[in-house]
TrEMBL record:
This is Class I SAM-dependent methyltransferase. SUPFAM superfamilies: S-adenosyl-L-methionine-dependent methyltransferases (SSF53335). InterPro entries: SAM-dependent_MTases_sf, TylF_MeTrfase. It comes from the Bacteria. Gene3D superfamilies: Vaccinia Virus protein VP39. PANTHER family: MACROCIN O-METHYLTRANSFERASE. It comes from Pedobacter frigoris.
Length: 238
């Protein structure tokens, strides 16, 4: 199973590097910062190709084994990650269902009905439609979660107050953890640890605050994932 689809629309759009970016990356290599800037990926600005590769393999590890449960995403927006998840589910001919949770109220630069955008994106990509759970997490989860969860992506940051965001992520973790089955995976978008990741921009510091607090009395450990200029991490349920 190849994963070149991750670089092409609608999953990504990796273009050849411009001479300007090659120049900037030469500078970054000189400074030994350990990462470079990829060409702007216009169709997938919510994640990097490195992150998509991480999603593909971690979800693949769950789909290839006997991990029980469905696939969920808390914070799906227009479905960039969600389409990748559904594509992986179908490539693996898995019978797992994708459940998506979002208020669909945050617009970023998009205008109009975000939920309709997501459905349209899935249709254009000729993917089976996911189960949508519209509303604030506080209203939809844990009640509307599947009984068992094999793979979860928490991606509910949109700037704003870090303590408020921490509370939301903590609420998500507390809701999903009891339903995560042994060996299941939870990926946390924007988990940034300067010690692990080096120099970077911590766009949603509430994620690490919530995750560290949540895991401190649990057997699971957080594992960083290389995501180039974006950051994320995961834990696997013991
Ligand atoms: C960064 S976006 C998600 C990006 C998405 N994973 C993708 O691949 O395009 C964050 C999303 O979280 C949602 N969100 C944040 N807090 C929420 C809450 N308390 N309840 C429901 N949705 C929430 C926002 O509506 C927004 O769509």
């Amino acid at each position: 199973m190849d994963n070149y689809f991750l670089t092409k629309p609608p999953y990504g759009n990796i273009k050849a590097s411009s001479s300007f970016l090659r120049f900037v990356n030469k500078g970054l290599r000189f400074l030994k910062l350990g990462y470079n800037i990829a060409p702007i990926d216009t169709s997938a600005d919510m994640n990097t190709v490195e992150q998509r590769i991480n999603y593909f393999h971690l979800l693949g590890s769950v789909l290839n084994s006997e991990i029980q449960g469905d696939v969920i995403e808390l914070g799906c927006f227009t479905g960039q990650c969600a389409m990748l998840f559904q594509k992986a589910i179908q490539l693996h001919q898995s019978d797992k269902t994708l459940h998506l949770y979002d208020s669909f109220e945050v617009k970023f630069k998009e205008k109009g009905d975000i939920q309709a955008f997501l459905i349209d994106n899935f249709k254009k990509a000729q993917l089976d439609l996911p189960v949508l759970h519209k509303g604030y997490f506080q209203d939809t989860i844990p009640g509307q979660l599947p009984e068992q969860i094999a793979f979860a992506h928490i991606d509910c940051g949109f700037g704003g107050d870090k303590m408020q965001h921490k509370d939301i992520v903590l609420y998500c973790l507390n809701s999903i953890y009891p339903r995560m089955t042994k060996g299941s995976v939870c990926i946390l978008m924007d988990y940034y640890d300067p010690e692990m990741n080096g120099i970077g921009i911590d766009i949603n510091p509430g994620v690490k605050l919530a995750c560290d607090e949540f895991l401190k009395d649990k057997p699971e450990k957080i594992n960083g994932l290389y995501g180039n200029q974006y950051f994320h991490a995961y834990f696997r349920k013991a």
